[in-house]
Design a protein that fits this description.
The chain is α+β, with helices and mostly antiparallel strands and 242 residues long. It is 52% helix and 12% strand. It has a 5-stranded antiparallel sheet. Helix 1 runs antiparallel to helix 2 and helix 2 runs antiparallel to helix 7.
Length: 242
């Protein structure tokens, strides 16, 4: 439990430091991947059925063109994974949705998702304000961990993420070294020393994937495209030692 608590605290802190919405969602996805979730889709909703998934996306790492294809086939407005959020406040699973009395169109929509993405189960997280449904976070995978503690953790992180994204949209930050987190500075410093993601991970006791996540965040904050450019820019601005 202490390890989970540490993970939650670190992820919430990462969300709070994020300077762009995309970085916020990726912080959740990093945790979700450790639990076997391959895909994440975040859509906005205002207490009404979503007619177009592609037109409501806040974050999407599904295969390119999937959402547009889903819309074109007419499945979006029949997708019970999303429409069920209008009635629910708690996270729910795809298996729970399959057990509901569904129309033919709704079952076809679910089959299309399963076949296209090889997703056998997933969790849907409604995000609600005091008066309305604000959005939905959908996570899926072939063999994801669906234990209640995982759902609760994802629910907490998703709520924190939505609050942070709303704040960022209302108060956009300018990229800059002052926004680099201590962990991002550490990762860039070791990258400057020629260490690989795996080597940095061993030094800092984090996974190579988490190392890449921190370096990608640093690149965005520094306004550069490559790892080498990030190191050079951080040195130039004296964020790391030359």
């Amino acid at each position: 439990m202490s390890e989970l608590r540490t993970t939650i605290v670190e992820t919430v802190e990462e969300i709070g430091r994020a300077s762009a919405p995309d970085a916020v969602w990726k912080a959740i996805k990093t945790y979700a991947e450790t639990q076997g979730f391959q895909y994440m889709l975040v859509v906005k909703s205002k207490n009404s059925p979503i007619e177009s998934v592609s037109g409501s996306i806040l974050y999407n790492d599904m295969p390119e063109g999937f959402a547009e294809s889903f819309d074109k086939l007419g499945f979006s407005k029949h997708n019970p994974l999303i429409s069920h959020a209008l009635k629910e406040a708690r996270p729910y699973s795809a298996a729970e949705v399959w057990a509901l009395p569904l129309t033919v169109h709704q079952r076809r929509a679910l089959v299309q998702i399963n076949l296209s993405l090889n997703v056998l189960d997933g969790v849907m997280i409604p995000i609600r304000s005091t008066t309305a449904l604000e959005g939905i976070v959908l996570l899926g995978g072939a063999t994801p961990e669906m234990a209640p503690i995982v759902r609760s953790t994802l629910h907490l992180l998703a709520c924190c993420a939505f609050e942070q994204v709303i704040h960022l949209v209302a108060n956009p930050r300018r990229p800059g070294v002052g926004l680099l987190s201590p962990r991002e500075v550490e990762c860039l410093s070791w990258a400057a020393a020629g260490k690989t993601d795996a080597e940095i991970g061993r030094i800092l006791t984090i996974s190579p994937r988490t190392t890449r996540f921190h370096i990608e965040n640093a690149k965005k904050k520094l306004g550069v495209a490559t790892r080498v450019q990030a190191v050079a820019e951080a040195m130039k601005r004296k964020a790391i030692a030359a």
